[in-house]
Automatic annotation (TrEMBL):
Name under which the protein is recorded: Myo-inositol 2-dehydrogenase/D-chiro-inositol 1-dehydrogenase
InterPro entries per record: Gfo-Idh-MocA_inositol_DH, Gfo/Idh/MocA-like_OxRdtase_N, GFO_IDH_MocA-like_dom, NAD(P)-bd_dom_sf
Entry GO MF terms: inositol 2-dehydrogenase (NAD+) activity
Keywords for this protein: Oxidoreductase
Domain of life of the organism encoding this protein: Bacteria
Location of the Gfo/Idh/MocA-like oxidoreductase N-terminal domain: 4-115
Coiled coil: none
Source organism phylogeny: Bacteria, Bacillati, Actinomycetota, Actinomycetes, Kineosporiales
Organism listed in the record: Kineosporia succinea
C-alpha cells in the first residue's frame, strides 16, 4: 500500500491519541499536518487553519477530532475537497447538520466519510455481534447496555449527554442487531440541574427492546457493559482487565478511568482499517448515514427527556449510496 499522508484537526486528548496510534501502529500512515485553535507542540507542522489543512495537496486524508459542533462543517469541507475523512463521533450536534454531510456525499456520488464509532471494531463487541448473527443466542428479545464515566468535561448538560455520550449506544444497539431504531424514551431520577444519569428505553423495527444507562459522572471509573438476551441464551461482554489484586484487605479488579485505554485495541483496529480503505480507495466502516441515523435518534432522545413521552425515531429513506 502507498503511504497515506494524514492531517489531524484537533489535537486534544482524542486527537493526540490518534496521532500516537497512527505513528506507532499503522505503518502505512504518516501524519503530516495538524491544526488546533489552542494546542501546539505535538512535533508535527501546524497548518494555518482547518480549511488550509483540508485543501493542502500534501494531505491525502483527514482525521477530525475537534469539538463536536465543528464536525459537520469540516466533514462537508472534506467531501467537497475529495478527501477521505475519519470524523470522531458525533457526526454533528444536530440532525439537520448531520443531514448536510449525507447530502454532500450523495451529491458527490461516492462515500468519503467514516464515523468514529470505534465500538464496531472492539473485539468483544464484534464477537457479540457474531453470536447474534449466527443465531447462537436464538431470537433476540432484550439488550441491556451500561455506559459510565468517572467524570466528563464534554457531556455537561442534558442535551450533550445524549448527543455526545449516549450516541455511542444509539449506534451500537442497531449495529449489533442488524436492525433499526423506531422509538426512544429517556428518563432520569434527577429532577433539578444536570440530569445525570439518564436511562433510555429503545425499540427496534423487529420488536427488540433495549435499556441504556448513561452516567457520565459515576465517580469510580470508566465502565462499559452490554448483555444481549435471546430465546436460547444470553451473551455479555466480560471485564477487559484480567488482573486481580489482594491489597489492604481488599480483593478485586481495577476499574480504568480512561476510555482511550479501555478501547485501545478498538481504536488501533479502527485506524488501521480506515487507512487501508483510504489506500485502496474502498471506503468502509460506519458511514455518514450511520452518523445521521444516530443523531436523529439522539434528537428524539432529547425531546423525550423534555416531554416525558416516548418519541419516534425516523431518519427517512436510506439513500442508494448507503445500501
Amino acid at each position: 500500500m502507498n503511504e497515506v499522508r494524514i492531517g489531524v484537526v484537533g489535537v486534544g486528548a482524542m486527537g493526540a491519541d490518534h496521532i500516537r496510534t497512527l505513528t506507532t501502529s499503522v505503518p502505512a500512515a504518516r501524519v503530516t499536518q495538524v491544526f488546533d485553535t489552542v494546542r501546539t507542540g505535538v512535533g508535527i507542522p501546524p497548518a494555518d487553519s482547518a480549511e488550509a489543512l483540508i485543501e493542502d495537496p500534501e494531505v491525502d486524508a483527514v482525521v477530525i477530532a475537534s469539538p463536536d459542533f465543528t464536525h459537520a462543517d469540516l466533514a462537508v469541507a472534506c467531501v467537497k475537497a475529495g478527501k477521505p475523512v475519519l470524523c470522531e463521533k458525533p457526526l454533528a450536534v444536530t440532525a439537520e447538520d448531520a443531514r448536510r454531510v449525507v447530502d454532500a456525499e450523495v451529491a458527490a456520488g461516492r462515500r468519503f466519510v467514516q464515523i468514529g464509532f470505534m465500538r464496531r471494531y472492539d473485539p468483544g463487541f464484534v464477537a457479540l455481534r457474531a453470536a447474534i448473527a449466527d443465531g447462537e443466542l436464538g431470537e433476540v428479545r432484550l439488550v441491556h447496555a451500561v455506559h459510565r464515566n468517572a467524570s466528563s468535561t464534554t457531556s455537561t448538560d442534558d442535551v450533550s449527554l445524549v448527543t455526545g455520550s449516549m450516541v455511542h449506544e444509539l449506534d451500537t444497539v442497531p449495529w449489533l442487531l442488524g436492525d433499526e431504531l423506531t422509538a426512544i424514551r429517556v428518563e432520569s431520577p434527577v429532577t433539578q440541574g444536570f440530569r445525570d444519569p439518564q436511562l433510555a428505553t429503545l425499540w427496534t423495527r423487529r420488536g427488540v427492546m433495549a435499556s441504556v444507562e448513561v452516567f457520565v459522572n459515576a465517580g469510580y471509573g470508566y465502565d462499559v457493559r452490554c448483555e444481549v438476551v435471546g430465546t436460547r441464551g444470553s451473551g455479555s461482554l466480560e471485564p477487559a482487565s484480567t488482573l486481580s489484586t489482594r491489597v489492604a484487605g481488599l480483593h478485586g479488579r481495577r476499574v480504568r478511568d480512561d476510555f482511550v485505554a479501555h478501547f485501545a485495541d478498538a481504536y488501533r483496529i479502527e485506524l488501521g482499517s480506515w487507512v487501508q480503505s483510504v489506500g485502496q480507495g474502498t471506503p468502509g466502516g460506519p458511514s455518514a448515514w450511520d452518523g445521521y441515523a444516530a443523531t436523529v435518534a439522539a434528537r428524539a432522545g432529547v425531546a423525550s427527556l423534555a416531554s416525558g413521552r416516548t418519541e419516534s425515531v425516523d431518519p427517512g429513506p436510506r439513500p442508494e449510496l448507503y445500501r
